[in-house]
């Protein structure tokens, strides 16, 4: 019998379940990358909405007055402005651009709390599809202001608000889906790699928007809007919410007696026959807060998991019930400040590079992608370290501790030349986005599948929405504060970001202490 070709041998070396998991991993990666792709254009286009033209404007004004009588019949092209796009061509342009960011992010923060509760009660595939189609519509709507020659500030603000609301359908949906398909064994590494969709989406969004920003900035919004709408159709055609929907086997953690996140339709409760184990000291708030060796605690306002098809009959957890899960409040408040820093860079970095390096909008947008490249490595590194140490809070805390002085160095070094800016963009991106990526993925999934929930798979969406919704409050405040502070100098913006990192670390101190205490108790127990 002839030997199988290498490609066929490679395909058959993986099981059907593994191929489906790889497919869901890739599909959800692309789906959420398209969300971030559609959010990025506003930061790239800012340099085009307002141009620094004070000197040239004075010369052109005198020339205009001199030849006014000769050109009265000639009308200025409606889509061209010497100082940008009205109404952003005024001296208060930073406040107006900050208002656009604030409108989107406030709507996103408010909508996120509702999105998780709604998402638990609707099929993920339908919910996500509608959200992506609507996101495409409102993203393109902002760009249509260019083609329709719209100069009303409220048009752009309303487009941002509507887009912020519908974009909240994305994160709880994809995290719930990926949590259904993957267990806790290597969740930090898997989700660290998977969460690079954020940076990949930002990079693609920057490159696409930068391609048209100087010639036709309306396309910088329309093209990403079309892309996310097309991906919404792909979602409707191919997304599989749960392994059971196609009779796939479910992922079981190697140290757990129960299937995770509803991946099995029943829970095997085994009596603890080890008398030494029962005498082990347990902190009720740290019973498998972030690791796999916990004992079950009491149910948090959710119904008991039932056999068989019980996944479809399990009641959704309440908002207060989700808040009582140990660690949810601390990580939510930590993410508020971590996301404040990350989104300030997301929305203001290209403009900062334009001002400091004196580059045009396109080159500044291209250079800003290096921050997201660093974020990819930071997210993967954070997941890998936290898996190895089994300490999510300590990993986040270490990176936050290093991020604050790095931001100070960035503000000083970036004025020394382009090469220094490139290096600091990569390092800052890794340290800023590492904790943010870890909390929004692996930590959210850990807490959403906490054993106190007794296998309630529907709680993950609410827990994810609470954590990311609280973080989105910081995401709304960061760009707003940057817009208000930047007129007094960019150094003050960096001081604000360093204080935010310190506050994020402060909220993790209790969990870090408990992780270290738990590790010490575990070591002492093994010695005895």
UniProtKB/TrEMBL annotation:
Stretches assigned to the Major facilitator superfamily (MFS) profile domain: 27-516
CDD domains (alphabetical): MFS_SLC37A1_2 (cd17344)
Main location (coarse class): membrane
Domain of life from the UniProt record: Eukaryota
Molecular functions (GO terms): glucose 6-phosphate:phosphate antiporter activity
Topology term for the membrane: Multi-pass membrane protein
Transmembrane helix in keyword set: yes
Annotated GO biological process: phosphate ion transmembrane transport
A Pfam family assignment: MFS_1
Alphabetically ordered keywords of this record: Membrane, Sugar transport, Transmembrane, Transmembrane helix, Transport
Annotated GO CC locations: endoplasmic reticulum membrane
Transmembrane segments: 19-37, 96-114, 126-147, 194-213, 219-240, 328-349, 369-386, 393-410, 422-447, 459-481, 493-512
Signal peptide (from-to): none
Subcellular location: Membrane
Catalysis performed (reactions): D-glucose 6-phosphate(in) + phosphate(out) = D-glucose 6-phosphate(out) + phosphate(in)
Family: Belongs to the major facilitator superfamily. Organophosphate:Pi antiporter (OPA) (TC 2.A.1.4) family.
Protein name (database record): Solute carrier family 37 member 1
